[in-house]
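thought: user wants a sequence for this fold. calling inverse folding tool.
action: design(structure=
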């Protein structure tokens, strides 16, 4: 009984172990398959990556071509620089030529001006010779000027300029003296006027005093007359009232 049971237990445990082993193997196979699949994908990725590297390498070659083109551009730039320098030198050469021509033109112009100046001087000399010489002309001008100084507009002779100036100064002094005398006369007239004013003021004061007295008398007389008229009016008024009162009394009686 016990033996059977043991056998039974061992057989069942063996079968379970077998099952577990099968499952483990199956799982291992599945994992191996997955690993193989992943390895294949990785290989493909590697191939793709290699292809990319090849394409990138191609890009590098293109870049090298680009570098060559850039080098060609640099060569062209160098040629442009040389061309620019050549043009600059040509421009400077032309500018120098223009400056040289301008200097030549200025020199010729100076010569022309000098010749014209000489011609004008010669013409002056000719006209002076026709007049009779420069010194004589100048002397005659001075004499004519002296005549003008000696004679005035009316043709009358007058003193030299200096004497005339002195005369003018003396005349100015006379005017100053005249002005001073005029001021003195004016002051005298002012003093006379002030004296007249004082006399007039005194006269006015005296007249005013008499007028005041006379006016006072007139005022008083008028006041008395006016007061008398008022008193007379009062009397007349009182008499009239008295008469009316007497008339009333008679009537009442």
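)
observation: tool returned 253 residues.
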């Amino acid at each position: 009984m016990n033996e059977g049971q043991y056998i039974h237990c061992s057989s069942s445990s063996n079968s379970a172990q077998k099952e577990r082993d099968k499952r483990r193997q199956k799982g291992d196979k599945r994992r191996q398959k997955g690993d193989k699949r992943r390895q294949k994908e990785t290989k493909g990725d590697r191939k793709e990556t290699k292809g990319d590297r090849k394409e990138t390498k191609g890009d590098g070659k293109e870049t090298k071509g680009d570098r060559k083109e850039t080098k060609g551009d640099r060569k062209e730039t160098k040629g442009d620089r040389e061309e620019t320098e050549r043009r600059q030198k040509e421009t400077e050469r032309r500018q120098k030529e223009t400056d040289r021509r301008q200097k030549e033109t200025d020199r010729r112009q100076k010569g022309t001006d000098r010749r014209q100046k000489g011609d004008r001087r010669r013409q002056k000399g000719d006209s002076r010779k026709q007049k009779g010489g420069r010194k004589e002309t100048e002397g005659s001008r001075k004499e004519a000027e002296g005549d003008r100084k000696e004679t005035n507009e009316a043709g009358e002779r007058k003193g030299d300029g200096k004497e005339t100036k002195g005369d003018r100064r003396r005349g100015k002094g006379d005017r100053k003296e005249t002005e001073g005398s005029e001021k003195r006369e004016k002051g005298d007239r002012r003093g006379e006027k002030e004296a007249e004013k004082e006399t007039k003021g005194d006269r006015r004061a005296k007249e005013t005093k008499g007028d005041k007295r006379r006016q006072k008398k007139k005022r008083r007389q008028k006041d008395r007359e006016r007061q008398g008229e008022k008193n007379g009016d009062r009397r007349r008024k009182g008499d009239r009232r008295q008469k009316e009162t007497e008339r009333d009394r008679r009537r009442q009686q």
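thought: summarizing for user.
answer: Here is the designed sequence. The two ends are 198 Å apart (CA to CA).
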